[in-house]
Design brief:
183 residues, alpha+beta, 2 domains, 5 helices, (2Fe-2S) ferredoxin domain-containing protein
Amino acid sequence: MSPSGKPCQLVVCRGCCCGTKKKRPGVDHKGQLERLSGFEDHEGRRVPVRVSKCLGICFKANVVVVQPSAQGRAGGGRPVWLGEFTEDRLIDDLDDWIFEGGPGIAPLPDSLEPHLTSKNAKKPKKAKLGKKAKKAAAEADGATRKGADEARPGGEKGKKKKKAKKAKKAEKSAKAEKKAKNT
Ligand code: FES
């Protein structure tokens, strides 16, 4: 096949979260970048890799964007955003896909499908608590607060403690008085 314009390109996010052990522990981020930088297409051209700052969807770290080749773009291919790109097997599948032509030329491998995302992806909201769960949480919170209040110096437990201390003091002074009288 004759050379046909620009090859596919990769944009690999290495911002505040992508490529960090803090966000994605247990991933060889450096090794991943090295492997992504070694891709070639079916025309034997090296696939350029651009390392980018945060692409704005950190909850999907690590993020990789596949830009179509000129031929792929002419065939309707558009940039493909992949998120949670952490497993080694995904690198192999991405390599194969780009070798076959990438966006606009070859179909996306099944294994990459669950990783499809976009620059407009929205962080999923935390699940809302139902009425019952809310009530239970409020009750548990109330019980904790009550316990804390009682333990406070002005609280129920604090008052009892103070009373006991006072009684002990009175007993002590009475003993001292008695002793003084006897001497
Ligand atoms: S660091 Fe990659 S999306 Fe923010």
